[in-house]
Amino acid sequence: MSKFVSFLYKLARTVNDIEKISSGDPKKIARRVKSKVIGRKIVSKICRWTKI
Asked: Pick from 6, 7, 21, 49: most CB atoms within 10 A?
Protein backbone atom coordinates (compact mmCIF):
# COMPACT_ATOMS: atom_id res chain seq x y z
CA MET A 1 0.00 0.00 0.00
CA SER A 2 2.79 2.45 0.85
CA LYS A 3 4.41 1.95 -2.56
CA PHE A 4 1.13 2.84 -4.22
CA VAL A 5 0.81 6.01 -2.12
CA SER A 6 4.42 6.95 -2.91
CA PHE A 7 3.68 6.43 -6.59
CA LEU A 8 0.64 8.71 -6.38
CA TYR A 9 2.63 11.48 -4.67
CA LYS A 10 5.41 11.21 -7.25
CA LEU A 11 2.83 11.29 -10.05
CA ALA A 12 1.18 14.39 -8.56
CA ARG A 13 4.54 16.20 -8.35
CA THR A 14 5.35 15.29 -11.95
CA VAL A 15 1.96 16.47 -13.19
CA ASN A 16 2.42 19.74 -11.31
CA ASP A 17 5.85 20.21 -12.96
CA ILE A 18 4.38 19.58 -16.40
CA GLU A 19 1.49 21.94 -15.70
CA LYS A 20 3.83 24.78 -14.66
CA ILE A 21 6.12 24.30 -17.67
CA SER A 22 3.24 24.07 -20.14
CA SER A 23 1.72 27.29 -18.78
CA GLY A 24 4.61 29.18 -20.34
CA ASP A 25 4.64 31.72 -17.50
CA PRO A 26 8.30 32.38 -16.64
CA LYS A 27 7.43 33.40 -13.07
CA LYS A 28 5.65 30.11 -12.37
CA ILE A 29 8.47 28.10 -13.93
CA ALA A 30 11.14 29.97 -11.95
CA ARG A 31 9.19 29.56 -8.71
CA ARG A 32 8.81 25.81 -9.31
CA VAL A 33 12.51 25.35 -10.08
CA LYS A 34 13.51 27.41 -7.04
CA SER A 35 11.23 25.36 -4.78
CA LYS A 36 12.63 22.08 -6.08
CA VAL A 37 16.25 23.20 -5.59
CA ILE A 38 15.61 24.49 -2.07
CA GLY A 39 13.69 21.34 -1.15
CA ARG A 40 16.49 19.09 -2.36
CA LYS A 41 19.10 21.04 -0.40
CA ILE A 42 17.05 20.83 2.79
CA VAL A 43 16.44 17.10 2.38
CA SER A 44 20.10 16.37 1.64
CA LYS A 45 21.18 18.28 4.76
CA ILE A 46 18.66 16.41 6.88
CA CYS A 47 19.84 13.07 5.49
CA ARG A 48 23.49 13.92 6.18
CA TRP A 49 22.64 15.09 9.68
CA THR A 50 20.73 11.91 10.59
CA LYS A 51 23.60 9.62 9.48
CA ILE A 52 25.82 10.87 12.30
From this structure: 21
